[in-house]
Batch of 2 targets.
Target 1
Amino acid sequence: MRAAAPGVARLLHIEASPRGSESFSARIAAAFVDEYRHSHPQDEVEQLRLFEHALPEFDAEAAAQKMQHISLLMRGEPGVAPVGKWAGVITEIERLKAADKVLISTPMWNFSLPYRLKHYLDVILQPGLTFYVNRRGEYVGKMGGKPLQLIIASGSAYAPGFPRADGGTKTDFLQAYLEHVARWMDFGDIRVIRVQPTAHPVPGEVTALLQGRIEEARAAARSF
């Protein structure tokens, strides 16, 4: 992955909705990116649309390479060479590491994350590459404290706290999981914009909600 020029930061936008401009999370993220380009004209922006991007399949070959990689690390060796399926894993990790700032926009699917976003995370979360285990057996992230902006859309409204429950029927595992994984990888400034409830029965209320979150996203982009 080519490094950004001196004085230029790279923003990686990971889009986890397949709905394009019909997606609430994608529309708010588009406003964020538009404002970011305007307020940071020297920076680079890369968009990774997970439903259009060919992620490496983490199949039997990749799993075997991961086990070999772990075995080599435990013996103090560098790890598996980037060949076969592991080459695709390394490519995605290098893309993430090359970014100075990361934006993830995603809807909630079935109280959790879309399967393509989970696929992506399963690809990049690799020992010795995005985290390592120190001599005390503690997991230590390797993202260097870079900032992360989350934009999350959900049909229903969820209150703060974990589990985020409403009458025992609605629990949000999405935000808690993403924040946990991000801290685990050592992302530093983790910010969240929630758009909810997008399934509001009154169309005018949804329009007002969307506009409010777009303005919030634009303000967030200016200080990101």
Target 2
Amino acid sequence: MIVRTIIWFLYFWIILLRYLPTLHRVKKLDQAGRKEDRDQLVERSVSAWAHSLLRMAGVQVEVSGTENIPAGPAVFVGNHQGNFDIPILLAYLDRPHGFVAKIETQKIPLIRSWMHYLHCVFLDRDNPRQAMGAIGEAAQTIQSGYPIILFPEGTRSRKDQMRSFQSGGLRLATKSEVPVVPLVINGSYRVMEAHGFWIHPAKVRLTILPPVAITGMSREEKKQLPSLLHDIIEQELNRQVNE
């Protein structure tokens, strides 16, 4: 699997370079105020790029529950097993989605530009003031019609058992008061994390569960939202693991 891993990382950067002309067109559309055309080009490009990364890694994805994706604004909340969670969601959720990401990812060349046009949110965990400002900005982004994905575990679990959910990022859901869609990712850690650094082919299940309505929740219910979402996702994950 050493050869597969080397080839995959070479392909990762080569394909990003090949998408430079597309990124230039995205910037031109943005400058011209053609937001709908810009978003469509970003969606097509990012989805194609993510699908190609999964094919190169030998990842097969089984998706269920697409009927649960809301037509309007939403926050998607998932468990986080491994690095390949992100290309899986970019490839198989049928709308462009931004992520709540560590602020360090802003330093990655090329990637940061695409993340900007996906309306990603960058959080500095060591700077609460910056984090609160970013959450407020993200809530406005969501209400403008751009969904956001977040992983409340905060880091990869690297296995089929979940970590506890942190409440910080989930303030985004309560602040924006849009439906929260639980996502269950089962098996992505087998692509890389189960083997150290090396990439292995694997089958992954992505399950999209029915949305949880935030509107009408009491203050106490909103405080319990991290536990509620964790239990919903964990219950389905455990059911799949024990099949």
